[in-house]
Amino acid sequence: METLIEPFQYEFFRHGLLAALMVGALCGLIGVYIVLKGMSYIGHGLSHAAFGGAVVGFTYKLNFYVGAAAAGLIAALLINKITSGKKIKSDAAIGIVTTACFAVGVAIISRLRRFTQSFEAALFGNILGVNESDLIVIGAVTCLTLVTIFITYRSLLFTTFDFDAAKVFGISTGRAQLIFAFILTMAIIASMNVVGVTMIAATIVVPAVTARLLTDSFSRMLILSTCIGAVIGVAGMYLSYYLNAASGATIVLFGASVFILVSAFNYVKERYLYRERTHRHGELVHTHRVGPGHTRQSHTHHQHTHDDETAAAEAPAGKETP
Amino acid sequence: MSHAIELRHVTTGYNTSVVLDNLSLVIQDGQFAGIVGPTGSGKTTLLKTILGTHPVFAGEVHLFGMPIERLPPGSIGYVPQLESVDWSFPVTVEQVILMGLYATQKRIIPWASKGEKRKVHDLALRLGIHDCLHHHIVNISGGQQQRAFLGRALISNPKLLILDEPTAGVDIKTQHDVLHLLGDLNQEGITIVLTTHDLNAVASHLPWVICFNQELIAEGAPREVFTDHVLTRTYGGDIVIIEHGDHFLIANSTPLKL
After folding, report:
1. A154 to chain B nearest CA, in Å?
2. Taking the domains of chain A in order of start, what are their residue ranges?
3. How many CB pairs lie under 8 A apart between chains A and B?
4. What is the pLDDT at residue A36?
5. ipTM of this model?
6. Closest residue to A217, CB basis, from B80, B92, B156
């Protein structure tokens, strides 16, 4: 027990742990929408855009968060605009917009080399350097995101699932997109000093895909992903202390391990508890997912894959089977 | 009779290519109409234009005498093509049907109220999918999937129901059941417009048909519209009508010799 409490004597660890808890939960929550929209690299891209904006802001003596937020929001809206034409897919739009913003930052740094040191935390993450004002920003963004998602849950769900139908049914899809772009940008900017631009994609994607493996319900996926993100953040921080390894990298590696474990569990469940089997019911020869308690009645709730070749072999051509 | 749908000199398309040029079309309130035409004839573009999800280059689209954006939420029910649905999305049948209420119920709390759940259950009972409300949408049959999305379209009591190929990918019995259900809904006063490739299903179930191939070729009762001449103009190939008592079948005149 003492070993577990030991790191708490250090203020940097207490701050880091709290930051990891909040950032993990925040990225886990946002990640559900990102993964389901098929835009897994938006976090990676927007953090790069925000980095470019932060550098530009710094040259104009603005606060780090102001430049980063402005660039992130502009990039998110530009990506939405480019993809709305349906000619350019989101991965290409993310690639163009965000790397262009990042390149602006790199170009400025290369001209004014004295800035290089200040932006290392944003690039690679510095969870142990998190101070109280950072914690306030992360806490405020986490609360804002939770409240926004709670209030706009219905319109965000419908828009994420079926954008065109949501519009037809009377949902303000444009407003839903704008709100999501805003909270996404805020979440990424609040998280980038903790996990770093280079690793933010993993903290967003890993909890959501892990949660997806565990549930078929959207609301449960949101709760699970948030909890998994928080647990990964806290456990990763602890591990980094005892392993004396970089915190951001340890959090990401621990998250990847959790994903692998859940995938393995799912594989075993599918392989041994629910197995593929070709079998027959009367005249119907088919391949069917069979689980415990499989009955004839349960067929109405399953997808049937007819084994055409087997069926064709069983039934002679041109004759009706008895 | 008032107009449920009215397109006045509408021109639309994709980027620089025009798909519908100066199209005018009227569908009366209370109609049960099927739009038929070959692949690439612009049926889906026409539906999207009516629904307001596709930009109009020129002309006007009015639903019940006003632009779609001025209609109260829930006035239109829409059932998309099943193949366009993201089947890996984590939603149950109940959650899909509930989405149809999201724009009409100004409820901030994410979870469904008891009243909403009761409404979903009653509708699911009518549609015959009440026993799979808590199933993930991929774990049900094609007919049940079609009914789940029909439930989403109907839950807000729409005046107009638009379906994109509701008979595609389902067996003949399910097709028959879905079309009869739509017929019943039409009897209750809902204007229904659907697209389909199944001419025989239209001929035997729908009172009104619109033959379409980038332009309006003919419209009317199937027995009047489905002539060799109209179908050849619509599809471009030789098509024959086979009459059998009160029924008639539409077939390709040059069957493949095996």
Report:
1. 6
2. 2-269, 279-314
3. 95
4. 94
5. 0.88
6. B92
